User: What shape does this take?
Amino acid sequence: MDTIIKISQSQTELAWDLAREMAEMINNAGRRGKTISIALSGGSTPKLLFSILGDNFSDSVMWKYVHFFWGDERCVSPEDPESNYGMTKNALLSKISIPSSNIHRIQGEKDPEKEAVRYSKLISRFTREREGSPVFDLIFLGLGEDGHVASIFPDQNHLLTSEKICEVAFHPVSKQKRITLTGKIINNADNIVFLVTGTYKAEMVSQIIESPGIVDYPAVYIEPVHGVLKWYLDIDAASMLNQWA
Ligand code: 6PG
Assistant: This one.
């Protein structure tokens, strides 16, 4: 497994670097007439990245060559402040020219079990396949303070090994239902990017990167089978890393 760690001086620098890399990746595909599939993360961290893309790259990126998906979604309506899709629409999607047929939101307002099945079929339809499973060109992940990724929370490790594409999960504290990609599908991606900022994530980052055999957080099990794992960190989130400090 190839792991790349990029440490930026600030959250803003990190977001700009990642925005430029994402723009180049999309335009490279567009110049070859190829579409790429990107699964976006929720939470607060990616909001700055999405805003920078929406405010500064709307005209310089060939957005029609992207199909956007979500790695997970809260089981709420798209208008709900908790909605990952809603956050992305406000920060990015409402500012770029992209066919609506390229935006594949998880319908959080629907019955979770039925939506997990519907979304799994949709992913299979719009992505490449490798070894019988869908392949995303790029999957963005955040990192929870408890070491969760997407909506794969600690003590729900069956979501890491499930043979399904999507599963219904639940937040361990709020019990809010979620739809999440399974670990198997995440690990089948060509590029997996963790986007993590803030001192409050530093200990978790250092444990996962430097002591994977000792801790049992879901993030430890994110190991691309064929692709590349990239950690995009600001100096605060990287502050407890030994070998990269
Ligand atoms: C979600 C995300 C979740 C998130 C982490 C980090 O739906 O909330 O998918 O996995 O990435 O909880 O969230 P922050 O970026 O807000 O710290």
